[in-house]
Amino acid sequence: MRFGAAVLRDYEAPFAVEEVILDAGPAEGEILVRIAGCGLCRTDLAVRRSAGRSPLPAVLGHEGAGVVVETGGPDTGLAPGDHVVLSFDSCGRCRSCLGGAPAYCDRFAALNLFGGRSESPGRFTDGAGEALAPRWFGQSSFAEYAMVPARNAVRVDASLPLELLGPLGCGFLTGAGAVLNSFGAGPGDTVAVFGAGAVGLAAVMAATAAGALVVAVDRHPERLAQAERFRAVPLDASSAGLPGHIRRLTGGGAQYALDTTGSVRLINDALRALRPTGLLGLVARLHTDLPLEPGTLDRGRRISHICEGDAVPALLIPRLTGLWRAGQFPFDQLIRTYPLADINEAERDCDAGRVVKPVLVP
Question: First and final CA of the chain: distance in angstroms?
Fold first, then answer.
């Protein structure tokens, strides 16, 4: 089977849309999906910063959504014609997976980042027959088609705007899941969100939908304006005395804070903005040491890393689409679509902050 895909051949090079080849149909437990749209996530772009760790050449993309074309065997739980959102891969057998925490799968890094799910040699190649890296996050969905483990796929209602749903499998799932799952925020709670990008704004939407008071912190005026439209109180990240502002706005400190920036300064500000017993969740990968200032963890304050919003995708994605139908999670307002052929323009716009969530449409 031949189809178009965006191939990354070098960590410093642009993507190249090329013809690629799948030389076999779905194996047992797999599905072939025709991609309707795929979100461009900063995790895809982080491959450039971690040069040498994720194998190249590769087809990236891990926020895909599409239509099932073919299934491998009768036990996938899916059928041709089903609309699905694709999420991260997991083994399904380790203690974390069996305990309902697939984002902490023992094989998460191997399966999603480093090509750990075995494939027959030459199964996925470029037009010249050169092997491409195994499926990125179980998907490699910067393409017209993707071969996916069925456990990665969540069936959704066919009346939903399928080409826009892909980011519910990772970026929006992470922000919303942090608030709804990790924090369990509800009416009367206070949440401070640091960074109003795709993950942060998803957290803002989820927190307001849950009935919490939300403060959003960012340095981009247009993103603060978007957060305010989602009923958050906007604060400039460069404001003097930022933790004090948040404590005043939240009546003594936020119960929960979420940092999506990885900034050491903002992480310390977030801790100082918490009330006693407050919890700070980190979702961004840290690229430096994290020195904590004296007193930031006093009085029962805690800090925890959150992966994929502590989500079971098959449970959280339907919940988010239900909130969208109710007008409480308007994630579509964050999306700008691009043809797959314009992936490099989408990357530039994402890096420059001109778009919150690019979605590539094959």
Answer: 16
Residue 315 lies in a domain: no
- Whether 285 and 335 share a structural domain: no
CATH code (residue 157): 3.90.180.10
Query: Which of 219, 337, 191, 341 lies closest to 275 in space, CA to CA?
Result: 191
The pTM score is 0.95
Number of domains in the chain: 2
Q: Are 189 and 145 part of one and the same domain?
A: no
How far apart CA 340 and CA 283 sit, in angstroms, is 28
Report the pLDDT value the prediction gives residue 116, as an integer from 0 to 100: 54
Whether 115 and 150 share a structural domain: yes
* Structural domain harbouring 87: 2-169+330-361
Residues 32, 140: one domain?
A: yes
> Which pLDDT does position 213 carry in this prediction?
98
User: CA distances (Å), 49 to each of 12, 45, 54, 233, 235, in order?
Assistant: 9, 8, 10, 33, 30
Q: What's the pLDDT at 295?
A: 85
As to burial, measured by CB atoms within 10 angstroms (0-12 exposed, 13-18 middle, 19+ buried), residue 46 is middle
Domain membership flag for residue 266:
yes
Contact 69, 148 (CB under 8 A): no
Beta strands (DSSP E) in 260-312 are 274-282, 302-305
Question: Going by C-beta distance under 8 Å and a sequence separation of 6 or more, which residues neighbour residue 99?
Answer: none
Strand locations in 78-131, DSSP E? 83-86, 124-126
Q: Which residue has the tokens 């490699």?
A: 140
- Kindly give the parts of the chain with pLDDT less than 50: 120-121
At 286 the pLDDT is 85
- List the Cα angle 119/122/127 in 5-degree steps: 130
E-strand spans in 152-286? Answer: 153-156, 190-194, 213-218, 233-236, 254-259, 274-282
Beta strands in 48-129 (DSSP E): 58-59, 64-71, 83-86, 124-126
CA pair distance 3, 18, nearest whole angstrom? 8
DSSP 207-226: HHHTT-EEEEEES-HHHHHH
> Residue 37 carries which DSSP code?
E
DSSP code, position 341 = G
Q: What is the pLDDT of residue 324?
A: 98
Residue 357 within a domain: yes
